[in-house]
Design brief:
Elements: H1 2-25, E1 27-31, H2 33-38, H3 41-53, H4 55-78, H5 84-138, E2 140-145, H6 159-168
Parallel strand pairs: 1-2
Length: 170
């Protein structure tokens, strides 16, 4: 009975070795999925559209930043010549403008983040379709997240190919 167990163990070990060779012969690739989706023509067009829509707020944010810096510079330069009431009034104006500046900046960041999340959610089915196609055509057995990779050999990063195929999707 002991010989049968050893024989079965050897057979199982042999099958495991031959199976792992098959797995190793399949392709292992690297993909930066988000980078691929944001590099598509659709993403670039969406970015341009969003920039155009938010241009008034962005211009206002930039102008506020410049005004804020000017007021801070004036306070630093003229503090010694100002009365304490004038300095306090200017500091209050700076604080009020800084809060408004931060709120507008947060608003713009939130809109950008929400737009990016919505875009990624809409692109996910197309990405899945493209990946299934690539997996089947190239006998891919493992896709590694490119943002986790420190180094990869040339030719195994499929991100450019995925961008190309995503651009062909309707």
């Amino acid at each position: 009975m002991n010989k049968v167990t050893k024989l079965l163990s050897f057979a199982a070990f042999s099958i495991t070795l031959s199976t792992s060779e098959l797995v190793l012969s399949d392709a292992i690739v690297v993909l930066k999925a988000e980078q691929a989706m944001f590099a598509t023509e659709k993403a670039i067009a969406l970015g341009a559209k969003l920039s155009e829509q938010l241009k008034p707020q962005t211009t206002r944010l930039d102008s506020m930043g410049e005004d804020l810096q000017a007021l801070q510079g004036r306070l630093e330069a003229d503090r010694d010549m100002m009365s304490s009431e004038e300095a306090q009034k200017l500091q209050l104006e700076i604080q009020t403008m800084a809060v408004e500046h931060q709120q507008l900046k947060a608003y713009l960041s939130n809109i950008k983040a929400k737009t990016e999340q919505d875009f990624l959610a809409k692109m996910r089915p197309a990405l899945d379709k493209v990946l299934r196609r690539l997996i089947e055509e190239n006998n891919i057995s493992l896709i590694i997240n490119g943002q986790s990779v420190i180094y990869n050999a040339a030719g195994i990063d499929i991100t450019p190919k995925v961008v190309e195929l995503l651009n062909m999707e309707p």
